[in-house]
């Protein structure tokens, strides 16, 4: 029997009742969701078990979308669209927090499953949204909210539900990776690359969310919640962005054999009090140039998961942009629609572990401290003493002339964040130290 003679399996044969979809937003992501839904509608009918029918497309300004969306589908009344009886599933790709929160809650409370790409909303209001979904026994899907096309929410929610995740870490913001990669590879300017990332549709409506790390912090909160079965919100994540990273930092990293990446790091740590806690942080980080994360270029993302039984897993792919994000949205939409047609629900929120969230000061890592110091005898000894007084061991010290001063770059062994930050404050007060140019953390060795 050849493969072609095999009987096909097509439950429901696509003959189930139509599933009505409300699309809220027709921007970078929404327009691709709309296009792919239209272009592949037959395929979706088979995968779902019944046709997916777009009942309306809510936008901010109807005039902008004439020609690309059938006029009778366009509306500015998102709430009215959600409440229509023929709408079963709501796809929210508007962005922001307050208004989409109202819309998503209204949809869930009306018994409609929701698919959203909105990490800011999920990271800020996960409890309320999960409760509303549970109360109405409907689904809340948000695969696209973390790392766009890369399936990482689903694997954490389902595939790794039988394992104990120890850490989740990686590059989860395409815009900042695009900027840092270009600055490192070509010496391009920060401002030019931010403008380009915005033009390409990677950046948020307000790109401050990207460059100041807020977008990655929302994603870190979502990842930590899923990985550790504990509620972690945006407010719980320590967040530093890349807006203060200079060409000089990048050059210093390069000459020491590193590249700078904005990393999100979520881990279980044992706090100063011996209690197991969850730590989630986002900051620019030095990564060795031969580490797999160093080869994640452009707007690509990569997420490492370390689990007790599975070991190390790496997820890599397109982390931003209209069609990669639409892929994740549509995967969720098919899941929600299948549940509507055949019954069943997606896994909901799981926060039973209820671990406390660690203070940032309790985190342990290694550091790269770049200083301008006086060029005279005894300076190195003075600086070393400040580190040793705090119990921080130095790994390498590099000094070079810089005009009438000297530039001193110190790399440390592992130290507590609280000790390092106290040390930096002491260094700033030392006569021999003119300025502390930057403090960057090191990971991946
Ligand atoms: P855009 O700014 O490109 O699109 C937003 C859409 O929402 C526009 O169509 C806009 O309408 C519409 N809109 C704005 N206000 C309203 C309103 N009051 N009522 C109805 N519609 C409204 O955003 P993106 O597509 O880039 O992002 C959407 C979501 O997806 C965000 O949550 C974002 O974080 C997330 N996301 C984005 C990714 C990306 O790479 N871009 C990747 C992963 C997630 P109009 O066009 O008329 O102004
Ligand atoms: N602005 C986000 C980024 C979009 O650059 O990663 C994907 O979530």
From TrEMBL:
NCBIfam families: PRK06349.1. It comes from Corynebacterium meridianum. Pathway: Amino-acid biosynthesis; L-methionine biosynthesis via de novo pathway; L-homoserine from L-aspartate: step 3/3; Amino-acid biosynthesis; L-threonine biosynthesis; L-threonine from L-aspartate: step 3/5. It catalyses: L-homoserine + NADP(+) = L-aspartate 4-semialdehyde + NADPH + H(+); L-homoserine + NAD(+) = L-aspartate 4-semialdehyde + NADH + H(+). It holds the Pfam family ACT. Belongs to the homoserine dehydrogenase family. It is an enzyme of class 1 (oxidoreductase). Its EC number is 1.1.1.3. This is Homoserine dehydrogenase. GO terms for molecular function: homoserine dehydrogenase activity; NADP binding. NADPH binds at residue 119. Residues 368-441 form the ACT domain. L-homoserine binds at residue 204.
């Amino acid at each position: 029997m050849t493969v072609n003679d095999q009987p096909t399996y097509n439950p429901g044969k696509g003959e189930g009742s139509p599933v009505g979809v409300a699309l809220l937003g027709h921007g970078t992501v929404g327009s691709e969701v709309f296009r792919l839904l239209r272009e592949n509608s037959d395929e979706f009918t088979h995968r779902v078990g019944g046709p997916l029918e777009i009942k309306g497309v809510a936008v901010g300004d109807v005039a902008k979308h004439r020609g690309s969306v059938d006029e009778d589908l366009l509306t500015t009344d998102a709430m009215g669209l959600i409440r229509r009886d023929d709408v079963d599933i709501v796809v929210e790709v508007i962005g922001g927090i307050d208004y989409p929160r109202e819309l998503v809650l209204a949809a869930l409370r009306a018994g409609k499953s929701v698919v959203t790409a909105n990490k800011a909303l999920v990271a800020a209001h996960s409890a309320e949204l999960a409760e509303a979904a549970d109360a109405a026994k409907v689904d809340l899907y948000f695969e696209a909210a973390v790392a766009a096309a890369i399936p990482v929410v689903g694997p954490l929610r389902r595939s790794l539900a039988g394992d104990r995740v120890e850490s989740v870490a990686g590059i989860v913001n395409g815009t900042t990776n695009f900027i840092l990669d270009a600055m490192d590879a070509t010496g391009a300017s920060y401002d030019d690359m931010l403008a380009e990332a915005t033009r390409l549709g990677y950046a948020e409506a307000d790109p401050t969310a990207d460059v100041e790390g807020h977008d990655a912090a929302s994603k870190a909160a979502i990842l930590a919640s899923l990985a550790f079965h504990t509620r972690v919100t945006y407010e719980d994540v320590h967040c530093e962005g890349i807006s203060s990273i200079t060409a000089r930092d990048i050059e210093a990293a390069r000459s020491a054999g590193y590249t700078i990446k904005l990393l999100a790091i979520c881990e279980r740590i044992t706090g100063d009090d011996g209690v197991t806690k969850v730590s989630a942080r986002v900051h620019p980080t030095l990564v060795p140039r031969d580490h797999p994360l160093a080869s994640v270029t452009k707007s690509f993302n990569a997420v490492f998961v370390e689990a007790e039984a599975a070991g190390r897993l790496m997820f890599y792919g397109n982390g931003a942009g209209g069609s990669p994000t639409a892929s994740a949205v549509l995967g969720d939409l098919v899941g929600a629609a299948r549940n509507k047609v055949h019954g069943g629900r997606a896994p909901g929120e799981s926060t039973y572990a209820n671990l406390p969230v660690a203070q940032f000061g309790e985190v342990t890592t290694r550091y790269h401290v770049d200083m301008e110091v006086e060029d005279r005898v005894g300076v190195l000894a003075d600086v070393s003493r400040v580190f040793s007084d705090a119990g921080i061991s130095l790994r390498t010290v590099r000094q070079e002339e810089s005009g009438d001063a000297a530039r001193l770059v110190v790399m440390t062994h592992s130290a507590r964040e609280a000790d390092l930050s106290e040390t930096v404050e002491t260094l700033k007060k030392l006569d021999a130290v003119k300025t502390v140019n930057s403090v960057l953390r090191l990971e991946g060795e």
